[in-house]
Amino acid sequence: MPTAPASSFQTLYPNNPDPNQPDTEVLREFASHLSGRVRGELDFTTTARALYSTDAGNYRVVPSVVFAPADKAEAILAITTARDLGMPITPRGSGTSCAGNAIGPGLVIDFLRHMNRVISVDPQKKTAIVEPGCIEATLQKTAGQYGLRFGPDPSTQNRCTIGGMVGNNACGPHATAWGKTSENIVSLEVVDGHGRHFTAGQGSLATVPGLQELIEANLAPIRTEMGRFGRQVSGYSLEYLLPENGGNLAGMLVGTEGTLACVLEVEVKLVDIPRAPVLVAIGYSNMIEAGRDVPAILAHKPLAVEGLDKRLVDVVRVHKGPGAVPELPAGEGWLMCEIGGADLDDAMRRAQAMAGSANSSAVAIYPPGEDAARLWRIRADGAGLGGRTPVELDSDGNVVGGNEQAWPGWEDAAVPPENLGDYLEDFTALMDNYGINGLLYGHFGDGCVHVRLDMPLGSQAGVGKSKEFLIDSAKLLGKYGGSVSGEHGDGRSRSELLKYMYSPQMLQLFAAVKHLFDPENLMNPGVLTRPQPLVGPAGSHPDHHAFEQLQKEIAPDNLEIGLRRPAAKTIPAATGFQFRHDHADFTTAVHRCTGVSKCRADNSGGGEFMCPSFNATKNEIDSTRGRARVLEELAGGELIATWDDPRVTRALDLCLACKACAADCPAGIDMAKYRSEVYYRRYRGKVRPASHYLLGRLPVWTRLTATIPGMAAIANTAMKIPPIRNLAFKIAGIDSRRQMPHLQSHLFNNWAPKHTCARKASSAPRSNNGKKYVVLWADSFSQSINDEGARDMIAVLVSAGYTPLLPPQDLCCGLTWITTGQLDTAREKITTLVEQLTPFALAGIPIVGVEPSCTAVLRDDALDLNIDAEVEAVSSAVYTLAELLTAPAPIGPDSTDWMPNLTGKEVVAQPHCHHYSVMGWDADETLLNRAGAKLIKLSGCCGLAGNFGMEAGHYETSVKVAQQSLLPTLAQHPDAIYLADGFSCRTQAGQLAGRGGVHLASLIKQNQNAMKARS
Question: What is the pLDDT of residues 971-988, one digit of tens each?
Answer without folding.
Answer: 999 999 999 999 999 999
